[in-house]
């Protein structure tokens, strides 16, 4: 992955020379505050936590994907020297279940095991090895049951859960159900199970409090929701449970599985001692949520000129054993099933079902990524059948501002889809590799690969993707922030967790720009602060950033009002630039420090975007606050004899609303593209009859730096969304959604094969010899 390529390509988004970017404030490439600590190895990750009198926790997990629990005997574990506590479902308060959206997942399995790795019991001991040995000593008698692993069979199978196997069904009806086109193409597509593979170990520390409560020190991305879940399971009032966010190394979804946080707190309450748990990589694969494996059936109708007439689709999401965020993922999949195209008629059926497969949940671009791979494959099929260029078929159908989605919602935000596609189409193609020994590493398969240059075919493919911003379907999006200034230092207090999205940096930039104070610090996050919501869908850039901006503007008014009153003018006639306050006529000129005169100024503000509504029984409704779009051109080299694929280059054009931090934006886009390349080629958490095969980073192939292609950010469209603070849009989800479809399109172009499954298997990329 080329950082230089991204940053040098960014100026191509404009037609005229731009001024030098500012040194601070919005528009500056301000580095993240924790950059040095992370690069030097001094960043305090959750796995580094320590406390006096620390105990260690371990979980016993089910080896079966589906079984009835006949008995659990913990006596051997309790009698082991060094063991302080053993807990099971009997120690959980309330109904013993939790869930961020639907409380259907037990902390510990009580009667039935529903997926491989489900927690049965937990142990606290004075040494981690003792805890693991004690957990292994717990004797569980299982009656093994036949697992339901095929989501299509879940409809007729015996209920796996008291709530049934069907989590949600959305039948979207738009336009005339009887409409047909002159040209019809069909396809069946399968998307695999991608793991978020969070950087660093999932870990936490629970510390009991003197008032009978507990403090949880975890790398949470949604601390207030985690606190409320924990309080219900502990049988405590929420104010007696405190979640302190610590050591978040990065997240592309829900960073921590609450299923390991909850036993941690229960053990601390039971023992009266601090308890620490560090999950192994295998436990992470077994416990936390993955991207929904999806089965998609499509039929596209078009007229003879290639204009879309109707889209029919059936979408089936495998939720695994529990609901988690499957309802929201399904809504996104159904709403975006036609892609960023104008479709007069649509008939979409979407289902999310429970199985005995590993749990699915929130992963960046959920729902939208799966359907993008399918509808873009359909557009390639239409182009081939009509004899049109890949880009021409898309340009004849692209969405624009003012068009209507199949959900009936009008696109009111900027939607420069055609402009994005033109940008990647017109960007120069990379040169062909030289046929010489020193360039053997350029072959698919890498150095020492078995490929031959004569078997390599180059392919070029395109994809258009779209994602929604913030929560959907009536989610109450709100965030609160406080800005305090004293002695030349500004402090931002906001419970928005920095997951790598850059919120902490953005908060500093907002205050620098608004108040002219260069030294800005962002306070650590805990649940004593007002809630800011989860770190997903770019919401902290919009909602939490908006709250910080409003609070900073309130402090600005407090700062300027005395001066304005003294000189007989309004505060609007004063400006703050580089720490100096000046009036429009030059009469007033002073510094922010002098104007503060030792005072402490502070203000608290909220930001709440306009409300949305749930999709109705026909899949209609204004369900989304806003949309973001992306166009990607992929160039691949494929060894058509071996089926190995090398992604040579990804050209990206994206509508970003406004560039708030150029370097950070480029990094977010590059990371999103690379994650999408992994989903396209290597990442698939494989299962056999519900059992996870190779739950480690040896069996699960993440793309490395050698696998990452050159990423050329050829255009960033800055057309501000007027309803968003700063006019900015989220950056990383759109390329995650779009890049797998672009890679698949390029492999289709190179091989002539249909490529209807992600990740792309080598056998699928082997060209069939002509008779």
From TrEMBL:
Residues 1-16 have a biased composition (Polar residues). InterPro entries: Ald_Oxase/Xan_DH_a/b, Ald_Oxase/Xan_DH_a/b_sf, Ald_Oxase/xanthine_DH-like, AldOxase/xan_DH_MoCoBD1, AldOxase/xan_DH_MoCoBD2, AldOxase/xan_DH_Mopterin-bd_sf. Signal peptide: none annotated. Residues 40-146 form the Aldehyde oxidase/xanthine dehydrogenase a/b hammerhead domain. Transmembrane segments: none annotated. It comes from the Bacteria. Residues 1-35 are annotated as: Disordered. This is Xanthine dehydrogenase family protein molybdopterin-binding subunit. It comes from Streptomyces xantholiticus.
């Amino acid at each position: 992955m080329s950082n230089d390529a991204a940053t040098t390509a960014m100026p191509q988004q404009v037609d005229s020379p731009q001024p030098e970017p500012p040194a601070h404030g919005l528009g500056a490439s301000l580095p993240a505050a924790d950059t040095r600590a992370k690069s030097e190895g001094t960043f305090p990750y959750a796995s580094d936590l320590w406390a006096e009198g620390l105990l260690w926790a371990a979980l016993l997990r089910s080896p079966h994907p589906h079984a009835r629990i006949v008995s659990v005997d913990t006596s051997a574990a309790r009698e082991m020297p060094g063991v302080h506590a053993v807990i099971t479902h009997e120690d959980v308060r309330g109904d013993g279940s939790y869930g961020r959206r639907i409380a259907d997942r037990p902390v510990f399995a009580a009667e039935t095991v529903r997926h491989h790795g489900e927690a049965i019991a937990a142990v606290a001991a004075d040494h981690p090895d003792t805890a693991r040995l004690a957990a292994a000593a717990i004797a569980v008698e299982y009656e093994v049951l036949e697992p339901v692993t095929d989501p299509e069979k879940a409809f007729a199978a015996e209920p796996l859960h008291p709530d049934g196997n069907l989590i949600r069904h959305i039948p979207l009806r738009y336009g005339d159900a009887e409409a047909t086109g002159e040209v019809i193409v069909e396809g069946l597509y399968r998307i695999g199970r991608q793991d978020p593979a969070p950087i660093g170990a999932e870990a936490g520390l629970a510390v009991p409090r003197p008032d009978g409560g507990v403090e949880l020190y975890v790398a949470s991305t949604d601390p207030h929701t985690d606190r409320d879940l924990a309080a219900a399971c502990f049988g405590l009032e929420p104010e007696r449970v405190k979640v302190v966010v610590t050591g978040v190394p990065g997240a592309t979804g829900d960073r921590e599985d609450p299923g390991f946080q909850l036993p941690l707190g229960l053990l601390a309450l039971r023992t009266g001692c601090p308890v620490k748990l560090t999950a192994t990589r295998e436990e992470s694969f077994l416990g936390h949520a993955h991207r929904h494996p999806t089965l998609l059936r499509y039929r596209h109708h078009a007229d003879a000129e290639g204009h879309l007439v109707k889209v029919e689709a059936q979408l089936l999401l495998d939720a695994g054993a529990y609901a988690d965020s499957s309802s929201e993922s399904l809504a996104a999949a159904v709403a975006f099933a036609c892609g960023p195209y104008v479709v007069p008629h649509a008939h979409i059926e979407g289902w999310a079902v429970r199985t005995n497969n590993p749990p699915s949940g929130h992963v960046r671009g959920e729902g939208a990524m799966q359907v993008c791979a399918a509808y873009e494959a359909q557009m390639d099929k239409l182009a081939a059948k009509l004899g049109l260029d890949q880009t021409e078929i898309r340009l004849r159908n692209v969405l624009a501002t003012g068009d209507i989605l199949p959900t009936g919602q009008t696109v009111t935000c900027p939607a420069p889809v055609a402009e994005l596609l033109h940008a990647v189409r017109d960007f120069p193609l990379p040169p062909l590799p030289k046929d010489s020994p020193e360039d053997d590493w350029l072959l698919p398969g890498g150095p020492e690969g078995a490929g031959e240059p004569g078997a390599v075919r180059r392919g070029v493919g395109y994809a258009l993707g779209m994602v929604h911003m913030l929560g959907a379907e009536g989610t109450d999006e709100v965030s609160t922030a406080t800005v305090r200034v004293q002695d030349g230092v500004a402090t931002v207090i906001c419970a928005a967790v920095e997951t790598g999205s850059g919120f902490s940096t953005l908060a500093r930039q907002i205050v620098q720009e608004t108040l002219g104070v260069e030294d800005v610090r962002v306070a650590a996050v805990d649940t004593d602060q007002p809630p800011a919501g989860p770190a997903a869908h770019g919401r902290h850039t919009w909602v939490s950033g908006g709250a910080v901006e409003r609070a900073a503007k309130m402090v600005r008014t407090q700062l300027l009002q005395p001066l304005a009153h003294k000189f007989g003018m309004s505060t609007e006639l004063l400006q703050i630039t580089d720490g100096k306050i000046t009036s429009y006529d030059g009469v007033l000129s002073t510094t922010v420090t002098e104007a503060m005169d030792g005072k402490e100024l502070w203000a608290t503000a909220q930001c709440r975007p306009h409300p949305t509504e749930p999709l109705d029984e026909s899949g209609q409704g204004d369900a989304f606050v806003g949309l973001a779009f992306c166009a990607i051109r992929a160039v691949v080299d494929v060894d058509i004899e071996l089926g190995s694929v090398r992604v040579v280059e990804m050209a990206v054009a994206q509508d970003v609303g406004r560039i708030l931090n150029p370097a950070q934006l480029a990094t977010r886009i590059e990371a999103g593209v690379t994650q999408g390349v992994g989903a396209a080629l290597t990442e698939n958490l494989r299962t056999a009859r519900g059992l996870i095969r190779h739950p480690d980073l040896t069996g699960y192939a993440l793309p490395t730096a050698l696998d990452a292609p050159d990423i050329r950010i050829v255009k960033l469209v800055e057309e501000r969304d007027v309803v968003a603070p700063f006019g900015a849009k989220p950056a990383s989800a759109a390329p995650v959604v779009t890049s797998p479809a672009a890679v698949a399109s390029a492999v289709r172009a190179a091989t002539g094969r249909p490529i209807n499954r992600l990740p792309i298997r080598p056998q699928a990329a082997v060209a069939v010899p002509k008779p």
